[in-house]
Amino acid sequence: MAAGDSSFESLDEIGNFSDSGSDYEATLTSTKRKTQAVTGPKLPKRPRHKAALRGSSLSSTSSSIPTPPTPPLQQQSRGRSKQASPRPVTRENEGNRGISAKDIYDAVCSGKSAMVTVVDEWLDSYKQSREAGLLVLINFIVQSCGCKGVVSREMLDSMQNAEIISTLTKEFNEESVNYPLCTPGPELRRFKASLCEFTRVLVRSCRNSLIFDEYLFPSLLALLTGLSDSQVRAFRHTSTLLAMKLMTGLVEVAVIVSVQQQTTQRQYDKENSKRASDRASDGLEELRATISQLRENKEEVSSMMNATFRGVFVHRYRDRLPEIRAACIEELGVWLINDPEDFLNDGCMKYLGWTLHDKQSPVRLQCVRALQAVYQEKEFIGRLELFTSRFKERMLGMVLDKDLDVAVEVVNLLLLIQQLKSVIDSENQVNGTSGNADLLQILITFYMQSEFHEHGAYLVDSLWGVAKSELRDWETMTTVLLQESGLMYEEEGALVELMICALRQAAQASPPVGRTQSKKLLSMKDKKAQEHDRRRLTMHFIPLLPQLLAKYSADAGIVTLLLKAPLYFNLEMYNSVPRLEKHLDQLLFQLCGIVEKHTAVTVLQACATLFSALCSDSYTFSSRSHLAFSQLLDGLTECFSSYLSDMLQGTADDDSVYSAATTLKRIAALSSAKDTTVWKLFDPCLELLKSRIESRDLDKELMVPALKCAAFNLMWAKMNAVNSTPAEEELKRLKKEMRSFCKVCETCLSLNQTEIRDQAFELLCDLLLLYSQTSVCSAPALQTLVLLPSDFLRSEMAAFLVDYVFSDSDDDELNVEEEMKITVLQRKRNQLAGYCKLVIYGVLDLNAATEVFKHYSKYFKDFGDIIKETVSKSKLISPVQSAKTVCLSLQQLFSEMLTEDHSQQDLSEIRELAKKLAMSFGVDLHRVRKPLVALHMDGIHFAFRKPQEEEEPNMNLAFLEILSEFSFKLLRQDRTQLAAYLKSECPSAALSWPSVRMYQCSLEGRSSSKPREKEGGDAASSHDTPAAKRKRTTTQDDKIQRERDGTTRNMKVFQEVSTLMCGSGYSRTVLQCREKLMKMKSSVASSARESLLDSLSFPSNLPTPALTSTALRVGAKQQAAFGATENDEGSGFTEPESEDDFSIGFTMRKVKPAKQCHLSSSQTGTSLDQRDLNSNLTLLSLIEDGEEEEPEIDDYESGSDDESECSLPSTRHTSASVLDELFD
């Protein structure tokens, strides 16, 4: 509407349009028919609908008479056979025995002839020769325009539409401005009425056959479209009137075809819903063919309607001639009434709104009358809200129209609108609805137009504070849903979902997932209000829910939502209120009917959940629910048993297998909610599974529910054994059944059927956990039921994880919907969580978690939260064994890397995984001391293990690089012990290898300490970086030892710098290097201090404070501008609170290669030796910073974003409740 308003806000310029209107012609391409003429009374064979007919092609030229690019009329004429009569048809149509154009024209002019007889005579002529018949009709149209020219057969065969119109224009008698449609007197009304009647009868007589022959009407409409664009007023007026009348007839045909299609579709659906044995296959095929034929007919008629609307109406409704504009608006009003589904929309209503501004009163009058007809229909009021609000001011202003007839009709229109609104309001009051229906309509529209997935709960929660009463208007919602002609199909589904979300919000008084800010305790007043709302909605919905289920029983989506409603009821009211008892039986009846009607898993699961709630022993009416459930399951079990023997023998046909599969699917869904062991379904399901596996007839529709039925039977049997005291023989039998089922599932894990394989794995995880040692700790008598998985089953389950969970899916390569990807990922997460639960609860050894741990880094985005929780839980079980499992996972990855192809990139990935796993040890290094030592010893042993046959010696030495990622967590005394252990295991020749030296440096880096602070006040008064004072708790011996270690380390650095200088041609002793480097260090630190103090801009009257650790880090960053690299200090570190913490956390900062080589632009051209020198300067800076700044413990679990290697951010925003659901 807005676009239309901006382009044509007012029709004041209508009178300035050119006589020819707009250069536009829509062409209809049609299929070439058979060349021979049709003889006899036989109608033409119905052709297939061509795609070319579904759209109209636009052509616009600058000539006075536009030439269409593909005129179908002439194309068809050229393609006809020479068997057709080539004789030209004159004005008297001499030589043709049928009716002539003059005869039709005379009959129309007289107005006394029966149009049915005239049309029948012409149809007889058309059936004998359709080319000649079309030519007669064309000449009749030319005569009706007042033109004396004649279209001959040669013209029809050889000329385009535009050429024919041009020839007729030249022969037109322009001496007189009168033509039949503008002749004054009663003749005008008589001719116009007869012409319209002839057109109406013609369409009605052809609506069952000739209208779909893709020849007559496309050719006729193409000619009328070209004539309507002519500069000759007679052509334009007459052709527009005929085109609009033909359009009206086509609209009626389209409505009839739509009704026939809907009726046939209902017949087909009813027949198809019957059982396979009761269906009439021939009837179904005939109905299917009829539906296809009607669909093609509807598309063909819609194509012609679309071409006429775009080619004629869109341009002639604003023609210069007011009679043409009035004719277009009059017919538009008829289309709105006859076919509101296609025309009663803003795209068509805008033409009426714009025409209200027309300068000519006859056009405005016709527009107002068309609006009166539309507003008389009460069911249209909902679709007219936007139009009414947009043109309300214009309609009110037209009450003072200068034309009295227009003013009177406008007053009648406004009274009609007011009367209609009053009637609707009164009916709403009678029906119990209120003005909230408007708000509901707005909510439905907003919900449907939003592209968010399942956001109904969040929409209701957002509006609950401001529109609580409107959202609790259950009466309006149910009244609208139970009305026969209320909402569209999509609108009904949206309203049901919003209603269920409002029910949940009112009954539970809790926001949806993700909206909970904090646990808020409800006050006594809020609890009373919540209970009142729950009783009120229960009283309202108990009588109406069976009616809603009956109405929407065939719709799986709506039924699934409606079945959730009783879960929010106060179910005690079924017995507490006597008049509500009968509705329980109605609900159970509808529930059983839905189970028998649907096979969708979501619907069946909703039914099972509702049955479980109604059969709860806490309700006094549970016996009635148990009875209904038992009767339902009796029928389903009997049905399944009738097909079982044939399926086991392999003689069942496809219909029997389908019936058995659907029945078993219903039983499986119900088994998840209620105990079904009394029906003894385990043995039949197990035999069925074995027979299908042996025959390799893997029908997922049959095997998946069979797996579920057997598994649920074992689960219920275990629960019954816990709640009772079964005999020893019964326990042995149950364990035997469990072992047999595990073997079947073990076989299913290797099948090439995704659904069967996934279901078997999930059921195995649940059953092994249910029959584990942990589950019978409280019942020693049930020790017989404990079943541990075999070694082969363990390996199969681990292989399943690698092959189907930790695998890159092909969904990225295929065009898979995003929702399907989310579903697949969720299923993988459930499978991984099931496997991790087996590890956590002791069903599988901790070593089995290596297949999980080694994918922590690669699949961190999808499964990071689950794996992190598993690592954390494993540390609670056995910290040492958990650490060894972490090391084992890294060893396996390293061995796989060596087996496939040694790659530095693969080694970097393993080191990245080691970093992430090292973060999981936390900051309490005393608590993880033994696990870390065990991890390092296992790693060292693996690195120097003896080579096996055909293995190179010392293949695993590079593993020490991976192991070094865990060194920063070691205590000083443990570093010394591990360094000694390394020397004992490592051959003397390998001590100089890079990997060994790197690992040694990682151990020595943490064990070395910083030199002791200078005695006296030198350190405090130094002009270098002053250090903050801290309370010391370590002994003096430790300080002396740290000072010695630091001095030794500094001398090593000076020696390395001297060696590098000599290699570059500069002879420098160690002492010279030490003095030079100390001077460089002093100048850099002084510059950094002065720059920092200047930037702080402290007032001159305040004393300069001692720099904190933060200030020191800023200074370190400023040193990077002078060539020193930035150290690893950052916000991810926290200051130690004691000397113990200091000794634990103190380490030589690891200088990462990326940061170590990060130089300024002026230094990019330095040589390799210069970069090595800068690296040693950086190391020296780090060493001597220890004299001025105390180190800090790395807070590896603080989640800081400043240092990525020191944080473990959660890549999946999963609340704790989701993890609880996965692990509990």
Verbal overview:
The structure is a single chain. The chain has 1224 residues and is an all-alpha fold. Among the domains are: 101-341, no CATH class; 344-426, Leucine-rich Repeat Variant, CATH 1.25.10; 450-515 and 523-627, no CATH class; 675-868, no CATH class; 878-1004. Helices cover 63% and strands 1% of the residues. It has 51 helices and 4 strands. A two-stranded antiparallel sheet has the order 1-2. A two-stranded antiparallel sheet has the order 3-4. Residues 1-96, 1006-1037, 1039-1044 and 1084-1224 have low confidence and may be disordered.
Count the helices. How many? 51
Shape: elongated
Strand order of the largest sheet: 1-2
User: Structural class of the secondary elements?
Assistant: mainly alpha
The span between the termini is 56 Å
Find the count of extended strands (DSSP E, 2+ residues): 4
Q: What Rg, in angstroms, do the CA atoms define? A: 44 Å
Average pLDDT number: 75
The helix content is 55-70%
Portion in beta strands? under 5%
Task: Give the low-pLDDT segments.
Answer: 1-96, 1006-1037, 1039-1044, 1084-1224
Give a quick account of the main beta sheet: strands, pairing sense, barrel closure.
Answer: 2 strands, antiparallel
GO molecular function: chromatin binding
Subcellular location: Nucleus; Chromosome; Chromosome, Centromere
Biased composition (Low complexity): 56-65
Region (Disordered): 1-97, 1004-1049, 1182-1224
Summarize the structure.
Helix content is 63%, strand content 1%. The chain has 1224 residues and is mainly α.
